[in-house]
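Review form for a predicted model. The reviewer records the input and the model, then writes brief findings.
Reviewer: anonymous (R2)
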Amino acid sequence: MLQLSDGTFVMYWVSRLQEQHGHNRVCVAASISPDLIHWKEVGPIFSIEAWPFDEEPTLEVESPCVIPKDGRYWLFFKHGWWTHYVSSPSPLDFAGQPVSRLGFVHAAEVFHWRDSWWITHCSGDPTDFRYRQSNRTRGLYLGRLDWPAGGLPRLADD
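Model under review:
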């Protein structure tokens, strides 16, 4: 969830688009609220083709997280094995913006703490992206993002 400068709250969620909006498309959608009690659906704010390989952990998009930074809004989401991101000047319209892959991070939340950017990863050791040795029922990992002012986010090496 995100609170905008005018006090409006934005909740992001995922769905599959109806076929009339494009074949095999999944999306991140949004709802807005002035008070966290009364909500209005905005609808899809970003869509992408469902992951094309059945052996991937999900065909959908998952775990949307939106961060304001450098005068833009950054949408992080899981798709297939990976967390991707897209940025936009609007928190309610990411359509047509280029998508970049950040790396293998599951159910990511991005946050700023003590002068550093961080990203969470749940369900297993981040180096075991196919979950061959990890116990998927436990574990929360933190990683640092290298995200300079005006630059693109990337997973830090340390």
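Findings: The longest strand covers residues 40-49.
Further findings: The mean pLDDT is 86.
Recommendation: see findings above.
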